[in-house]
Amino acid sequence: MIWKIDFESEEAIYIQLRNQIIMGIAMEMIREGDSLPSVRQLADTIGINMHTVNKAYSVLRQEGFIRLDRRKGAVIALDIDRITEIQSLKRELSVLLARSICKNVSREEVHNIVDEIYNSYTVRG
Prior knowledge:
Oligomer: single chain
Structural class: mainly alpha
Shape: globular
Low-confidence stretches: none
Number of strands: 2
Mean pLDDT: 91
Radius of gyration: 16 Å
Distance between the termini: 22 Å
Strand order of the largest sheet: 1-2
Strand content: 5-15%
Order of helices and strands: HHHEEHH
């Protein structure tokens, strides 16, 4: 997987890293049971502090995307509870939709955007 960190972004680096891993899972670039690079290895590859990678991995573990194994390190393990995920999605979408409504984005435009993004992740069938 190619790691792209925008050091000029206002978004925290650990969040950028977390998001890339989640998108990699959704796009099947990384799969259930795959090991992620070690904290030190990934930090060296990207050129960031090990604590930043550790924080990203910690958040991913808390969210149910990875498990930490003493021998294998961070391993993709998708154990997200569906109901919890739907509630989280509703909370996050509520804010995004409110922002869009304030900027006069139409319902049709929102649906088209959601369909486009969803379809980009569901190529696998």
